[in-house]
Amino acid sequence: MIQSYNLKVDIPQKNAYSYDILIGCNLLDSVDELVNKYSFANKFLIVTNEKVAGLYKDKIAIDKANWLVLPDGEEYKNFETLKLILDAAVKNKLERKDCIVAFGGGVVGDMAGFAAATYMRGCDFIQIPTTLLAQVDSSVGGKVAVNHEDGKNLIGAFYQPKAVIADINVLKTLDLRQLKTGLSEILKYALIEKSCAAPLNYRLYDFLIQHKQDIFDLNPEVMSKLVHICCALKASVVNQDETEKGLRAILNLGHTYAHAIESLTNYTTYTHGEAVGVGLKMALNLALIRGLIDKGYFEQAINLIDEYQIAPKIPKLDKEEFYNVMFLDKKAKNGKIRFVVPNGMYSVAIVSDISKEQVMESISTCL
User: Of 27, 61, 200, 269, whose CB has the highest number of CB atoms within 10 Å?
Assistant: First the structure.
């Protein structure tokens, strides 16, 4: 029997506010029972996208629920789509005690969560992530947002869900590209594990080396453990720093570069994970340039990224424009870009004294 996991995000700054992350197979079979366990809502608004609705709308039964089906894609993570969610909440007369359910990937989760954070100044919110990326990363921790035309996730909030319900079975519907998109975030966790200060040593880096074929085969036991490890690492960080005053910024390894790539290509050319994969390589380049890691670890990490094929070749982007776009990153402070960079095996540091020349050199080999 495949093991199920139940983790808790437990935030002491919020008077011990906590919520469950459920990980296992066949959880959708009891989804009505689960959402009613975690929210005492009279009404549910299920927000999903066209692809997920086509797969599950006729198979998922949640009492007292209405559905809103959105177009699929990062390019729709904007104010116009956010208004559709808020309009549906008003039309269905949701009250503050009612619940918005995000049933989809990271885009759906971020937008539905932001709608829940702002509708009547906050209603209940449950995450049911359907992509690997959402299960291991975006559904956990309460970051919710929409994109601005000048930058990714510039308009958002910290708003924690009532629960996260991750059914491993839904990963079977992912194509290879979407699987690799999630794997980029997983490799990120492998590179930051020591800095997460988790209570256990999960040895994620070694796990990825040992179970590569099992992961591409979507072995349910391996995938359940993989999602559990990543959620446990993220929960450890969020428990210590919910609103990214310090430690939580390490979760953005590679993302300063990635968000620039996404912005410069109008969110239509690369998935978020593909951009992160390239960003991880650039961050490793920067760490090597700064002398924070040795050549051996650099080559080992780059080889693992290449083995999982998560960093696509990208066309030449204007390096000057690339550099300028990075100043819109949310980690920028006092006019300086703050970078998360590896500073040893499976650990990272946040640095801001990076010269323009070093940034340019770090991106050059990937453009």
Answer: 27
